[in-house]
Specification:
alpha+beta; Deoxyribonuclease I, Chain A; six-stranded mixed sheet; 12 strands; DNA-binding; AP_endonuc_1; metal-binding; metal ion binding; magnesium
Length: 267
DNA sequence: ATGGTAGTCAAACTA
């Protein structure tokens, strides 16, 4: 089984590229983040025509996560228990955002995750990010406590660079989110709960990234960040036979600022 | 030159 994750930065502006990529990538399950649309705007017919079942959650032009699967799509869950809420404006009741979607695909519990950005080190959004990751750690860790053989994949845009060589120049990030110790500790918490970065062994650094900012010629300068991850439970990690980051997809007009991350699993 | 790009939705916000 081949599993992939991709922050597409708007599915409506990217649907042609995603479709073309699916047609040549032989992917069984694709998790999407930042679809930036409501459910009724998601172009599910385009993917159904390629043989994929589709699940999506999106409430507005922000966030939005989806799962495409041609190996079954059942037990769809919108959000995870205890997922924190967020309100962008004072006076507006906080609500759960479209940042997590889970389903069973080919016997694997796959979660498409779009971790909150954090924005700046002093922004309340950073606290929201940390609380969101802590809630994920608690519940994903709980699944493993209940079933040590559980096949779970936590995939998506984590908005964290866990190690210094996951960014092109750590000195540029001294006052930035994504590399701060609290964020890295939150990421480590998920790892220590039993989830492993299954891609890194097949894509060793330094200089290997999944995201390049649109500005400042970051991509041609090879100035990126490794912030998109596939974290596997022990039973899933055992099945991994290969992985790659499809850097080619960051090239050309109409590219997302993230590249797809692909993992191969033994049957 | 005090910016630089891209997306959503049409001024400002998010990344």
């Amino acid at each position: 089984m081949r599993l992939a994750t991709w922050n597409v930065n708007s599915i409506r502006s990217r649907v042609d590229r995603v479709e073309a990529w699916l047609q040549r990538s032989d992917v069984d399950v694709l998790a999407l983040q930042e679809t930036k649309c409501k459910d009724e705007q998601f172009p599910e017919d385009r993917f159904r025509a390629l043989g994929y079942d589709v699940a999506h959650v999106g409430h507005s032009q922000w966030n939005g996560v989806a799962l495409l699967s041609r190996v079954g799509l059942s037990d769809v869950q919108v959000g995870f228990p205890g997922m924190p809420s967020w309100s962008s404006k004072e006076g507006v009741e906080p609500a759960q955002e479209a940042r997590a979607l889970g389903a069973t695909c080919g016997g694997v519990q796959v979660w498409s995750l779009y971790v909150p950005n954090g924005r700046t080190l002093t922004d309340p959004h950073l606290q929201y990010k940390l609380e969101w990751l802590e809630a994920l750690r608690v519940h994903a860790g709980g699944w493993l406590s209940e079933d040590t053989e559980a096949q779970v994949a936590l995939v998506g845009d984590w908005n964290i660079a866990p190690q210094d060589d996951d960014v092109w120049d750590i000195s540029v990030f001294s006052s930035s989110t994504h590399v701060s110790e609290p964020e890295r500790a939150a990421f480590r918490g998920v790892v220590e709960a039993g989830f492993t970065d299954v891609v890194r062994p097949y894509t060793p650094g330094p200089g290997v990234y999944t995201y390049w900012d649109y500005t400042q010629l970051r991509f041609p300068r090879r100035e990126g960040m490794r912030i998109d991850f596939v974290l596997g439970s022990p039973a899933l990690t055992q099945r991994v036979t290969g992985a790659r980051i499809d850097r080619e997809e960051r090239k050309g007009k109409g590219a997302s600022d993230h590249a797809p991350v692909v993992v191969d699993l033994a049957d």
